[in-house]
Every structure is written in structure tokens, then in C-alpha cells.
Design goal:
This protein is mainly alpha-helical. Helix content is 76%, strand content 1%. The protein has a two-stranded parallel sheet with strand order 1-2.
């Protein structure tokens, strides 16, 4: 009859002994997750790591109290009941297995974990009909509410405004080094370096389809080359720029996107219409790159415009002159 549940037992059919055993295993799992977060963050984000270490101590305290309550009522043999054994019980997403998980994402996941636990126990208590079971679930819900308050206090203690600002800046810097900088380099290379071959082909042949094929080949080839070059020249260990595959992916994809931006208009069969649209795309691309340089790389806007817009215009002009000649 319960085959559709995959062998899991509905929460409504758990005994008080089993509910208490489930609470113990849940506290053990959460303590391990918080310990994993603390270990991962200790080097770069010590204040947040300290907060998670305090949360581990809280979870361990809850576990010890639950074990003591279990032994007083049911003896020393605790049955093995885990979340995945109970239908409808909240699950923990395995985000702690993801390397280089963002700082704010980790903080948000921890808050969600505590909120899930509290809501589950409150809902379970409201549905229970047996007074003892209702009291037990209510006690567990109260523990989770108290835990959330202590987590807030721990965050206030360890994550002072200065510490949080410093860690947020470190996280922002890591994002720039790992994703934005390689992606921007790729976008600049793809947008500028493909201008000459694409527009030289366009004005030499005045054939939109041929121009598109040349632009597609130039964009994809440049993307592959830039991606492998970025990934191979720095393993990120000493520079701290992050995993090579992430930087290579960002550089390769954005190089391809930069070239395809002004190649795709040549899918339009009318040459001058396609060329007009391509000119407009190039204008937007170059100014967007200048804005990104100014916004994220803190390059003075005038210098960014000179480097990108003027340089791109010269490459575009060279392609048109070569193709038109």
C-alpha cells in the first residue's frame, strides 16, 4: 500500500521513540554541515567560520540533550531513522558539496536550514493528536526557535559591521578575479578581434551568409583558443584567481558571445540591412565593455572609452578598408 512512498514511512505513523531518534539524527547531520562550512570558510572568512563553529556547538548541545531524553524514556539503543526514511520530512540540499560556494549563498542556506527545522516541528506539533507527542514536538519546535535566536546572536558577535564588510569585499574581489576579469577579457577579444575579418568579408563579398559563416568560425575558434589559454596559463593556486576551469569557461564563452554579437545580424538576407544592424550591435558592444571596465575594474571611464571604443573603431575601419579595397 505504501509502495508509492518508496518504502518511506509517513510521519503520522512514527512513534514518539522514532520521532526522538529522527530528531537526534537530524541534529547530527546539521552539525556536520555547519562544520563543513566552517572548515571551508576559515581561511578567507574567519568571522563567518567562527559563527558556524558556534552553531556546531549549539547543534551538539541539542543532540546531547535529545540523547539524554531518549535514554531516560527508551533506553540506550537508538534506532537508525534519517530524513530520507520519512515521507514528507524536509530534506537538506547538498549545497555544501559545491566547491567555492558564494559567501552569501552559504549564509542564506544556513538560515533556510534553521527555518525549515522550526516550521516542520511547529507544523508537526499542530497536527499531533496524542498529548505526549504534541508536547514532544512542541519542545523540539521551541528548541529550534531558540537556536535561531542564538544564531542571530552569534552572527551579531562574530560578524561585526567591519568584519562583514571585509568578508563581503573579499567575496566580491574573488568573483571579479574568477569570473568578471576573464569574462571581460574574452568579451573584449571576441568583440574587437573579430571586427576586421567579419567586416572585411562582408564588404569583400557582400554576401550575408558567407559573412555569417566566417563570423561564426572566427567567434567559436577565438572562444576555444581564449578559454584554453586562460585555463592553462594560471592554475590559480598562487594568484588566488580561482579554479582554472571557471576562468577558462568565462573567457571562452564571453569571447564567443563577443564575436557572435556582430556576426548574427548577417543571418538577415539583405546585405545593407544586416550591415546596419551589425554596426549598431558593435556600437552597443564597445560602449558596454567600457562601462563594465569602469564599473567592475575601476578603470577611469575616459581611459576605458579610449582603449575600447577608439581601438574598436580603428579595427572596424581596417576591416572595411581591406574588404572594400
Amino acid at each position: 500500500m505504501l509502495g508509492f512512498l518508496g518504502g518511506r514511512r509517513p510521519f503520522s505513523r512514527l512513534t514518539e521513540k522514532e520521532v526522538l531518534a529522527l530528531a537526534i539524527s537530524s541534529e547530527e547531520d546539521d552539525a556536520r554541515i555547519y562544520a563543513t562550512y566552517a572548515d571551508r570558510l576559515r581561511k578567507d572568512y574567519p568571522a563567518t567560520a567562527a559563527m558556524f563553529e558556534e552553531m556546531v556547538e549549539e547543534e551538539d548541545g541539542h543532540r546531547r540533550a535529545l540523547i539524554a531524553a531518549f535514554e531516560r524514556r527508551f533506553g540506550s539503543t537508538i534506532p537508525l531513522i534519517r530524513r530520507e526514511h520519512v515521507a514528507g520530512y524536509y530534506a537538506r540540499r547538498p549545497v555544501w558539496l559545491v566547491e567555492n560556494l558564494g559567501l552569501e549563498r552559504i549564509r542564506e542556506e544556513a538560515a533556510r536550514m534553521e527555518s525549515d527545522s522550526r516550521r516542520f516541528y511547529e507544523a508537526a506539533a499542530s497536527r499531533a493528536t496524542d498529548p505526549a507527542t504534541r508536547r514532544l514536538l512542541g519542545d523540539l519546535a521551541a528548541k529550534e526557535r531558540g537556536h535561531m535566536n542564538r544564531v542571530t546572536a552569534a552572527e551579531a558577535t562574530h560578524l561585526t559591521p567591519g568584519a562583514r564588510a571585509g568578508e563581503d569585499e573579499q567575496s566580491r574581489r574573488q568573483t571579479i578575479l574568477t569570473w568578471i576579469q576573464p569574462g571581460l577579457a574574452g568579451l573584449m577579444d571576441g568583440s574587437v578581434s573579430t571586427l576586421a575579418p567579419i567586416f572585411a568579408t562582408a564588404f569583400a563579398t557582400q554576401d550575408p551568409w558567407t559573412t555569417f559563416l566566417v563570423g561564426l568560425a572566427a567567434s567559436v575558434g577565438a572562444g576555444i583558443s581564449m578559454g584554453f589559454t586562460e585555463a592553462a596559463h594560471d592554475d590559480g593556486v598562487i594568484s588566488g584567481r580561482g579554479a582554472p576551469w571557471k576562468r577558462g569557461l568565462a573567457s571562452g564563452v564571453m569571447t564567443t558571445v563577443g564575436g557572435l554579437g556582430h556576426a548574427l545580424p548577417y543571418l538577415i538576407p539583405h546585405f545593407w540591412t544586416a550591415t546596419t544592424v551589425a554596426f549598431a550591435v558593435v556600437f552597443v558592444e564597445l560602449w558596454a565593455i567600457a562601462w563594465i571596465q569602469n564599473r567592475f575594474m575601476e578603470t577611469p571611464f575616459l581611459r576605458a572609452v579610449t582603449q575600447v571604443v577608439v581601438g574598436g573603431a580603428l579595427v572596424l575601419a581596417a576591416g572595411i578598408l581591406i574588404g572594400g579595397g
